[in-house]
Design a protein that fits this description.
2 copies of one chain form a homodimer. By secondary structure, chain A is an all-alpha fold. In chain A, helix 1 crosses helix 2, helix 2 crosses helix 3 and helix 5 packs antiparallel against helix 9. The longest helix of chain A is centred in the C-terminal third of the chain and has 23 residues. Chain A is elongated. Chain A binds a DNA duplex (30 and 30 nucleotides) through helix 1 and helix 3.
Chain lengths: 179, 179
DNA sequence: GGCACTAATGCAAATATTTTGCGTTAAGGA
DNA sequence: TCCTTAACGCAAAATATTTGCATTAGTGCC
């Protein structure tokens, strides 16, 4: 049977932290398993046995980092909330660190981590849309927003080297709201 | 100055072929640099010098494999052509080999390969849309199709483990054509 | 065509990494 | 508390990556 308790959790936390710290390293981040293990005070074999591969470890760390740190801002006007949230989302995802995390999440073998990532944005959207429904309004569905706004933005981030899509994203949002 | 001539091209072709062949291997594909080099009749250092990393090599191979092997079918009815092409596109991309290639293209450090990939689908769409314009019709723009159909399909393939989206994709296409 | 220049490769030693067997530690259940 | 065994540490073995130097072969020039 599995044993997620105490020690395992502590070690995983130490390893995740080690990855973050090594990213900040001034002279080029040395993201190798031995380096991460050393920083975390753990033997490399622990990492290999738990994650199998550096790619898998980085995928899980990235998924965790993509977890939103706060619920979407609530101004009272849900359309405005959506716009504010979207601006931040696009900025974060299209930044260099954001792109790197997306690469890493998608680089992992198991779809689990990528799924987690989209679950997060779904939750954030749901939070805003729930408030809209409380106000007896008729907002679009989460899926309509995913298809109409999030997906096109992500496609461009992943498949082109294009600059920040700020206005473009807002235009997509307006169009989806008008339907 | 660069020397893409003769030998380099031959070696690159041999290496790409080696990757393909190792994928077919019955008892688990051994996609390591040394294995690829051995199969291609080349020393590993050649691969390391040219691509730097296994991820980069696989990204470029995947980009090449995602190149469409034929122009979209032409039935005379461009709406039908779009539908036929889309069905095949979705089937190919959501298959296990297709997903693996997408992972590999996106896993590379440089955006170049992913960009190539989306350029290919853009070309295919353009080919169909050009025929529509020749017929003095008013088809949607390439970007409208990318935003309205391709992006949502890709988002689901990349971020969920959901099953083949055949009908879903067609529904997206219909909606985009009606606008 | 022959020649000079040097990018691209081959080779092999030096490093770095990943894997693996076995002993030890510590969750989780009785 | 005791037992079972998942998870870890350690170190040797197996692989993979890097690097310096020698060799091969595109490319431009005469």
């Amino acid at each position: 049977m599995a044993r997620p308790g105490g020690r395992s959790a502590r070690i995983q936390a130490a390893i995740f932290k080690a990855v973050e710290e090594l990213r900040e390293e001034p002279d080029g981040p040395d993201l190798t398993v031995p380096a991460i293990a050393a920083r975390a005070g753990v033997t490399p074999s622990t990492i290999y046995r738990r994650w199998g591969t550096l790619n898998e470890l980085l995928a899980q760390v990235a998924a965790q980092n993509l977890r939103p740190d706060a619920p979407p801002e609530a101004t009272g006007d849900w359309r405005r909330d959506l716009e504010i949230w979207l601006r931040q989302f696009v900025e974060e995802m299209s930044s260099d660190p954001g792109r790197a995390m997306l690469r890493e999440v998608l680089g992992g073998e198991r779809a689990e981590n990528a799924g987690q990532c989209s679950a997060y944005t779904r939750q954030q959207l749901d939070a805003i849309l729930d408030r809209a429904r409380d106000a007896s309004d008729e907002p679009p569905s989460t899926d309509e927003l995913l298809d109409g706004v999030i997906a096109p933005v992500m496609y461009r981030i992943l498949f082109t080297r294009a600059a920040p899509d700020d206005d473009y994203a807002i235009a997509l949002l307006q169009r989806t709201l008008e339907r």
